[in-house]
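Late entry, written up from scratch paper. The run itself happened at the end of the previous shift, but nothing got recorded in the book at the time, so transcribing now.
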Amino acid sequence: MLKLVFSILVGFVIGGYGFNHGADLTAFEAYVKAFNKTYATTSAGTFANYYYIYNRNQVNQHNAQQDRNRTTYREAVNQFSDIRLIQFAALLPKAVYPTVSHASTAIDTTDPVSEIDIISDLGMNVTVANQGTNCSSSWAYAAAKSIEIMNAIQTGNLNPLTLSAQELLDCAGMGTACTTQVPQIAFDYLTQYSNLLTDVEEYPNNNTLKTQGMCLPDQISTGVQLATYATIAEGDDVSLQRFVSNNIPVIVEYNPATFGFMQYSSGVYVPPTRIRTTSSQFLVVVGYGHDTDTGLDYWNCLNSFGTTWGENGYIRIIRSDKYPLAKNAIFPNTF
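Output as recorded:
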């Protein structure tokens, strides 16, 4: 009986939002159009409407605090604003790592500079990827993007072709490409079997798939050959800074299961001290610096949520001993 009353109450509350013909409904319709949303059923649309309004209100409350300098970053409505935080976390399951590593000794580096932004300092033209909302594929996008950036630097081509994450998903995914896979598998696919990583013109990305596709080797005729990769010890942010300072894009595993990360828009993101859920999103660290507005040091990281998320697809994360970033850090080493 109690369960029935609860279900009726939830249905009433959600329905109240779902059939609001005022400003809330107009805003939701604009959101659906802006982010090309479709829902399988009327019920799914009603739930999406409810959570969009709830998340939008949370964003507004957070930004009101930021206006008073009580937080260090801003939030915004984005492609995830029509789902619950628990659903967002479930889209990005905890990564599972292989027991054997083929990592090599890292290339020599010099002492770090005070600040750097690999992309802007070198004037590189790097396209921000969008992994979509169907597949936990950041491992493949981060691997492809790190190789693309480092190879472009080494060859002097500052307008590189975008390398194919879809090739890694299809050919190296090992059945878990959309769930728990990791960048090391992408690097092993390239280094241990002498495979080429081709560009998206030959092997297009497809972020609408919910599972990996069939590997198409006939579409891989040209590309980049990665010789070795290297890793950084857990929590060793000193080494992370040194490698990034030497124009090496480093992939790190990050726990995105917070409302602040899900709706991040700008500023220096500081995670809460307690995060209830553990998820995995792989980011490419491409710089670090100091933010004068907040007085905080930060890491600049390239994500794969597209340009409508964060600072045109990037996120600045607090750089502090209290919040070490070098988690399962890995990077392309030699070509």
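The chain has a mean pLDDT of 93.
(Scratch paper discarded after transcription.)
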